[in-house]
Design goal:
- This protein has no helices and five strands.
- The chain has a five-stranded antiparallel beta sheet with strand order 1-2-3-4-5, with no helix packed on it.
- Strand 1 and strand 2 form a beta hairpin.
Protein backbone atom coordinates (compact mmCIF):
# COMPACT_ATOMS: atom_id res chain seq x y z
CA UNK A 1 0.00 0.00 0.00
CA UNK A 2 1.07 3.56 -0.67
CA UNK A 3 -0.27 6.52 1.29
CA UNK A 4 0.28 9.82 -0.50
CA UNK A 5 0.34 13.05 1.46
CA UNK A 6 -0.54 16.16 -0.50
CA UNK A 7 -0.85 19.68 0.98
CA UNK A 8 -4.35 21.21 0.79
CA UNK A 9 -3.25 24.01 -1.54
CA UNK A 10 -0.38 22.34 -3.35
CA UNK A 11 0.91 19.24 -4.99
CA UNK A 12 3.39 16.46 -4.38
CA UNK A 13 5.60 14.48 -6.73
CA UNK A 14 6.29 10.80 -6.27
CA UNK A 15 8.58 8.46 -8.17
CA UNK A 16 7.92 4.75 -8.13
CA UNK A 17 10.61 2.14 -8.58
CA UNK A 18 10.24 -1.60 -8.85
CA UNK A 19 11.92 -3.54 -6.07
CA UNK A 20 12.54 -6.46 -8.37
CA UNK A 21 11.60 -7.57 -11.84
CA UNK A 22 8.34 -9.45 -12.03
CA UNK A 23 7.18 -11.75 -14.78
CA UNK A 24 4.39 -10.52 -17.03
CA UNK A 25 1.36 -12.81 -17.24
CA UNK A 26 1.57 -14.98 -20.36
CA UNK A 27 -1.88 -13.93 -21.59
CA UNK A 28 -1.20 -10.19 -21.27
CA UNK A 29 -1.28 -7.88 -24.29
CA UNK A 30 0.87 -5.31 -22.45
CA UNK A 31 4.24 -4.36 -23.90
CA UNK A 32 6.70 -2.54 -21.64
CA UNK A 33 10.00 -0.88 -22.56
CA UNK A 34 12.07 1.79 -20.80
CA UNK A 35 10.07 4.59 -22.45
CA UNK A 36 6.78 3.00 -23.47
CA UNK A 37 3.72 1.20 -22.11
CA UNK A 38 1.43 -0.23 -24.74
CA UNK A 39 -1.56 -2.51 -25.08
CA UNK A 40 -4.19 -3.11 -27.75
CA UNK A 41 -6.04 0.10 -26.88
CA UNK A 42 -3.42 2.73 -26.02
CA UNK A 43 0.28 3.65 -26.23
CA UNK A 44 1.97 5.88 -23.64
CA UNK A 45 5.52 7.18 -24.24
CA UNK A 46 7.56 8.85 -21.49
CA UNK A 47 10.25 11.53 -21.78
CA UNK A 48 13.69 10.04 -21.13
CA UNK A 49 14.89 12.94 -18.96
CA UNK A 50 11.80 13.94 -16.96
CA UNK A 51 9.59 10.85 -16.96
CA UNK A 52 6.65 13.00 -18.08
CA UNK A 53 4.18 11.61 -20.60
CA UNK A 54 5.26 12.99 -23.97
CA UNK A 55 2.99 10.90 -26.23
CA UNK A 56 -0.42 9.35 -25.71
CA UNK A 57 -2.06 7.54 -28.62
CA UNK A 58 -5.59 6.11 -28.64
CA UNK A 59 -5.47 3.05 -30.91
CA UNK A 60 -9.24 2.58 -30.99
CA UNK A 61 -9.94 6.13 -32.22
CA UNK A 62 -6.65 6.21 -34.18
CA UNK A 63 -5.66 9.63 -32.86
CA UNK A 64 -3.09 11.29 -30.64
CA UNK A 65 -4.28 12.67 -27.33
CA UNK A 66 -0.75 14.01 -26.70
CA UNK A 67 1.64 14.04 -29.68
CA UNK A 68 5.40 13.95 -29.06
CA UNK A 69 7.03 17.27 -29.92
CA UNK A 70 3.74 19.15 -29.70
CA UNK A 71 3.34 19.44 -25.92
Amino acid sequence: AFDAEVPAMGYATYRLFAEKESAMPQNSDISVTERCLENSKIRVVFDEKTGDICELYDKEDKKYIIEEGKT
